[in-house]
Amino acid sequence: MLFKKGKYFLPGILAVLAIASTVAMAQGPRQQEENFGPAPMNAEGRVVLGGATLASKGVWVPMFSIRDPVAPVEVVPFKPWAKALYDERQLHELEPHARCKASGVSRQFLTPYGVEFVEIPELNSMYIFDIGGPHTYREVHMDGRSHPADLEPSNYGHSIGWWEDDTLVVDTIGFNEDFWFERRGLPHTDQLHTIERFTRYNSDRVDYKLTVDDPGAYTQAYTGGFNLRWQEGQELFEYICQQANYAAELMVGQGADDVDRSSRIAP
Questions:
Q1: What is the distance between the alpha carbons of residues 53 and 218, in angstroms, rounded to a whole number?
Q2: Cα–Cα distance measured from residue 137 to residue 5, given in angstroms and rounded to the nearest whole number
Q3: Which end of the chain is more exposed for a tag (fewer CB within 10 A), N or C?
Q4: Are 142 and 118 in contact (CB under 8 A)?
Q5: What pLDDT is attached to residue 98?
């Protein structure tokens, strides 16, 4: 299996493996509570974001309509230019992630294929692996470091993390402007600073909360989120992202008549 950190790749083979995954509409973290077991713990008594044992396999998939914005548009404190850009994106839907570009923050979790969290204590790091899309991974430094003063902006930015009881907290800065941080196209600038909180409250659910602080695009910080569901037995698999762009005409939104659908180069 091949991954490339923070970038996309198109391997020169044609192999697509699809899996079925039901994506439920968003709901509160403890609404309609099912009778699931407790969240698995490690030897130190702390929640883990994987299976109950090393032999347990699974990935996290969104309990959320992946077409909805991560926060209701009516409560997002847009600056005028950001709202105009958001509206334009609803017409063209030229989303970078769907065109094989790595996309950080909540967009990483908004595919039906899911993600896997891999914590490696010896490296003091948490890795978050995508399955669908660009097949990239993100590193969260868990060793207590601060953000460096000089960062080269990237799609995933620079992430530091720590545990607060059963919640993994991830603080990220250093983003570029080449991706959408969620599926519907809420804009951001290189001033974007995010705080993500992953709270596993039983064997089957993670409550994901995202705080967006970007004074370049918004008048104040705001918070959104959704739930993730544990999909037992699923493992990472090879996913070819738009192999050779054979379906270029399908890579732009319906009704975007002013967009060139004939190009074989993903915009």
A1: 43
A2: 6
A3: N
A4: no
A5: 78
pTM: 0.80
Spatial CB neighbours of 202, under 8 Å, sequence gap ≥ 6: 36, 37, 38, 39
Over the chain (267 residues), what is each successive 10-residue block's mean pLDDT? 35 28 37 73 92 87 79 94 94 80 92 90 94 86 95 96 96 96 94 98 95 98 95 84 60 56 53
d(CA 236, CA 13): 18
How many CB atoms are located within 10 Å of the residue 254 CB?
7
> Domain coordinates of the chain in residue numbers?
58-250
Distance, in Å, from the CA atom of 239 to the CA atom of 41, rounded to the nearest integer, reads 31
What residue has token string 């347990």? 56
Q: Given its phi and psi angles, is residue 242 left (phi above 0), alpha (psi -120 to 50 degrees) or beta?
A: left
Distance (Å, rounded) from C-alpha 47 to C-alpha 27?
22
Which residues of the chain form beta strands (DSSP E)? Answer: 58-63, 115-120, 125-130, 137-141, 158-164, 167-173, 193-200, 205-213, 222-232
Unique residue bearing structure tokens 């600073």: 193
| Predicted pLDDT of residue 159 | 98
Round to whole Å and give the CA distance between 136 and 156: 10
Please count the residues of the chain. 267
Residue the block writes with tokens 């509409």: 25
Q: How many CB atoms lie within 10 A of CB 100?
A: 21
